[in-house]
Model the fold of this input.
Amino acid sequence: MRAMLQRVFALVVKELLALLRDPASRAVLIGPPIIQLIVFGYAATFELKHVPFVVYNQDQGQLSRELVARFAGAPSFDLLSPVHSQEAIERAINDKSALMALDIGPNFSADLERGQPAHVQIILDGRDSNTAAIAMGYVQSIVTQFNREQFLRHGAKPPTTVLLDRAWFNPNLDSRWFIVPGICGILTLLVSMLTTGLSVAREREMGTFDQLLVTPMPPAEILLGKALPGFLVGTAEGSLIIFMAVFWFHVPFTGSLLGLYIGLLCFLFSSVGIGLMISSLAVTQQQGLLGVFLFMVPAIVLSGFATPIANMPPAVQYITLLDPLRYFLIILRGSFLEGGGIALFGPQYWPLLTIGVICMIIAGSLFRKRIG
Done:
């Protein structure tokens, strides 16, 4: 056992030196993940701010000006120069200088004073349907509040049904609290798979694979020595990214650190197994790199990072069960926002371990076949 540990330790040191001494590998493992975390953490958001809009106010009464002021003062909207015709609205929408337009009729204030419905036409640029839908939600919120105050101002009773919104786990609905933990999982998967996905292929490309085979190490020890650097690098990168999520992006961490790190190790076990399987199939590093990215794209799409898995077709939902990132995102978001611990994450641990065991067995079989 001692001799085996010494051999595996020597191979792990050799792998780490090969990674850290190569400037290109060192730059790939350290620089891009941090840059991607900062860029995606600030750029990827479901919030909508500073939507440019124009107003064609044919009324110019007090109430119409008050409604326009509510939109102009909201952080989600930026009022451009007022327009004075329907054709000007069309031009602003067509040339994309405005995403939205308010067309207020000439009798808006008078209708409200008489207690009659007053209509405002909202025109949105439907070419960006997602942004338009979010903007419409903001518009409805402003108009609903405006109507409620008009009811109270004229001595009428407010609507009998009053909606009081309250968001659990994320009171301010800050999308960064949702996105940054997901980015932590994606970057940890990328780094660990790159570390292991290129290891065996690098040996073949550099001509040192045959030298490795004549050593007294059996195939199981070689695979173990190739897997452990992925664990070490993935744990270090994952810890750094989690640290930045808490202290740079100020995402609250309310769960169990032990539960999170057990999940991280289970996730690395599965991702390293997939990386070794890809590396055993690849002949060159280019093939290994291509295999890693061929896995990464569907893994991100099927993980529930951006779109809920429940909204996917039933057949696709079954495919997501093979995606380790799906389970780790639940652990990450549960640790940061839900205060989850080991007991809560138990149903996520065992699928990760199962995926890792199956992939390690396949990688070992492919490795032995390559030797034969």
